Amino acid sequence: MKFQSLRGMQDIFQSDSKKWHQLRQAYQLVLNRYGIGEVQNPILENLNLFVRTVGDSSDIVNKELYSFQDRNGDFIALRPEGTAGFIRSIIEKKIEHESHKAYYAGPMFRYERPQKGRFRQFHQLGVEYVGFPEGDADLEIISIVADLLEELGISQKAVIHINHLGSSEVKQQYCNVLKEFLMDYKDSLSEIDQKRLESNPLRVLDSKDESAQDILALQEVPRYEEFLTEEHLQLLNDINDTFQERVDISIDHKLVRGLDYYTGLVFEVLSNELGAQDSFIGGGRYDNLILELGGKEQSAIGFAVGLDRLLTLFEPSNEDRKKIIFINLAGSNRHHAYKIASNIRALSKKVTVESILTDASLKSQLRKANKLGGDFVLIIGDDEITSGNFIWKDLNEGTQEIVTLEQLTGKITHL
Ligand code: HAM
């Protein structure tokens, strides 16, 4: 029997992992600028943690959790997102009353129908700010997002949609009014939207279904903005004024997000280069969650980047790192050759010295050097070790020369 990876799960190979590496370097650079430190939480958590946080009306909890009973009979789930685990961890450590600026990166799991840009195992970079009330922190969070887009060179391909959900009372009030309005059109809604109308009417605003769109286009639909206070609307305008020169911002009062824990600012970053799964960053404020999970009352805001989607937008820069292919033809002096190769690696941060590690003929090793995309080849044999002269080939120029160790050192430090 031949095994295959599970549906919606990807193997990431070397050629892709270079792109992942550059992506990590870019986001770490931005996070360092803000003094945000890394946390690592477990991939497995108690199932109920997600029911209580993400919410039992969310798609995630209803149909997407990977869950099982462990050998002790406890109900466990693979994390579908990182906010719940992080908040659980700071409450458990009794440090939720302190302020935190934290990030995490790693795999998340949702049993969704796989399609382009939608996987069952995907990767998120998440940022959480705890202990910072509405205002400056909201601006700083959007500033991090704008910096990330800029650092990755994708600001032109992205639009940040922002909305304000108000306090939990306002959210509930609007929810009730919207539900009452939509009830008159219930029969025209799709089966999924009818269910949403019962469990979380706000989600109907998100619906891509045509009949829902038609109803929502009606003049008399209750509008979120009419329920928001001056300060709420001001925050959206402030964000728009501060960042619109760097990235497109769209104030979008239909943006509600699919997780239940949000109140206050919510946002999503969309790109029309992504196809149907066009949202690659999502986040917002969740000031009630810590209290609801048994911690002290504490404000919090954060976001998560879908790294798999981001990867398709991001074009890695050409690496200026040069590749030297090291061919060891030495016999009894073999180990000396490796010593020389090690010394060369230590000479410059800009070189890769990749050895071929076979006894194949020189000809076939040179063929391999070309296949590996080498810029240079260094050939070391017994004679070269004794004489201290090495063969240096420039594969891009098609030239070859004999160099002393000193000349070699000079060449490599100037690459
Ligand atoms: P979310 O919107 O559910 O938010 O997910 C964030 C991002 O993860 C999405 O924008 C998307 O790019 C990516 N994503 C989600 N599901 C998939 C999938 N099946 N395949 C590929 N990518 C996917 C959260 O998870 C919140 N925890 C964000 C947050 C942090 N809010 C506050 N703090």
Q: Which key phrases capture this entry?
A:
five-stranded mixed sheet, BirA Bifunctional Protein, domain 2, 2 domains, 415 residues, alpha+beta, binds histidyl-adenosine monophosphate, Rossmann fold, 15 helices, 16 strands
Write up this protein.
Helices cover 38% and strands 22% of the residues. It is an alpha+beta fold. The chain has two domains: 239 residues, Bira Bifunctional Protein, Domain 2 (BirA Bifunctional Protein, domain 2), CATH 3.30.930; 92 residues, Anticodon-binding domain (Rossmann fold). The strands form three sheets. It has an eight-stranded mixed sheet. Helix 12 links the parallel strand 12 and strand 13. Helix 1 packs antiparallel against helix 5 and helix 5 packs parallel to helix 9. The longest helix is centred in the N-terminal third of the chain and has 21 residues. It is elongated and about 90 Å long. The two termini are 50 Å apart. The mean pLDDT is 94. Histidyl-adenosine monophosphate binds next to strand 6, strand 10, strand 11 and helix 11.
